[in-house]
Structures are given as C-alpha cells and as structure tokens.
C-alpha cells in the first residue's frame, strides 16, 4: 500500500517558520486578491504546522502521525500492537487471525490471513492511499507468495546483486 502525499500528512510537534518565497504573494493574489494586496510589497514569514517535502523532520512527523492512526484502529475490540523490536511493524492478533503492517516512510506492506481485517483497516485510514494488493518487491527484498501452501518467501538476492553491481563485483 502506498499513502499519497504521506509527508504532507505529518503533524509537526512544534510549528516551524519560513520566509515566504518571492512568488508567494503573486500566487496568493490569484487565489485571494483582496488579501494578497496587503502582502505584495512585504516579506512574510509563514508558520508551518504540517510537514512538507524537504523538511528534515518530515519523515519523522509522518511516522508519528501514521503510528498514532494505526494505534487507534480497532477490530473486534482489539488494537494494533507496535513491536518493541521494530517500531515500524504493527501486529493485530485474535482467535487465530493475524494482520501485520510494516511501514517505511510512505510505503506499507500488509499481511493477513483474514482479508476482512485488511478491508476494515483501509476504510479506517484517514489518509488517501493506493492498495497494490500482492507484494512483489519491498525495500529491495523480493516476496514470493504461495497461497496454496500458505507461505511467503523473502529473498534479498536482488538487493545483494544490486549492491555488488554498484561496487563493481561481478563474480
């Protein structure tokens, strides 16, 4: 699953401030002409309350916002639990059903043995997202699913080959 504009959804812990770009007043004039006239000849400072791409803290703000949303998700009155060993992985378990989410910036993998849980989660999310269904490659790892056997194999072969190629190692 891919969250659209993930870093734009992150809530900042404290507001940040920036000088307005030179074109800002002209853009504002096209949207709100009466207000923009006051700002055409003056420098402005903007208060940023949501993360934007390019900010050092954008990825962290998004992770915190996404983590909070995940922890609020409940299915059959049970919440997701964040792993202590990997804070980007969340697990939900109940009566033999399992739903797992791994989060890396704006990309998530989801694994479940009950698709009703996944459907409920996708409907619950307050962010626009695209579900790519079956996972093929995630963070350089290749995933191979065998639904008849109920198995998932994870291989780092492609990541290792890519690393070796970058280093000029061919054999």
Describe the structure.
27% of the residues lie in helices and 34% in strands. With 171 residues, it is of the alpha+beta class. It starts with a strand and ends in a 5-residue tail after the last helix.
Give the mean pLDDT.
80
Distance between the termini: 35 Å
Strand content is: 25-35%
Biggest beta-sheet profile: 4 strands, antiparallel
What are the secondary-structure elements, in order, as H or E?
A: EEHHEHEEEEEEHEEEEH
- Which runs of at least 5 residues are low in confidence (pLDDT < 50)? none
Radius of gyration, Cα only, in angstroms?
Answer: 22 Å
Range of helix content? 25-40%
- How are the strands ordered across the major sheet? 6-7-8-9
SS element count, helices: 5
* Tally of strands: 13
Structural class, from secondary structure content? Answer: alpha+beta
Tertiary shape: extended
What would the keywords be for this entry?
single chain, 171 residues, alpha+beta, 4-stranded antiparallel beta sheet, 5 helices, 27% helix, extended
């Amino acid at each position: 699953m891919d969250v659209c504009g993930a870093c734009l959804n992150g809530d900042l812990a404290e507001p940040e401030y920036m000088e307005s770009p030179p074109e800002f007043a002209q853009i504002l004039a096209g949207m709100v002409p009466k207000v923009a006239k006051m700002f055409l000849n003056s420098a402005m400072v903007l208060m940023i309350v949501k993360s934007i791409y390019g900010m050092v803290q954008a990825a962290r703000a998004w992770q915190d916002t996404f983590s909070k949303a995940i922890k609020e998700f409940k299915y059959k009155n049970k919440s997701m639990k964040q792993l202590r060993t990997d804070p980007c992985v969340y697990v939900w378990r109940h009566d033999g059903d399992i739903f797992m989410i791994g989060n890396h910036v704006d990309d998530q993998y989801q694994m479940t043995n009950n698709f009703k849980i996944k459907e409920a989660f996708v409907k619950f999310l307050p962010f626009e997202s695209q579900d790519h269904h079956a996972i093929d490659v995630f963070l350089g790892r290749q995933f191979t699913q065998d639904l008849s056997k109920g198995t998932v194999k994870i291989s780092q072969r492609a990541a290792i080959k890519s690393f070796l190629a970058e280093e000029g190692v061919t054999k």
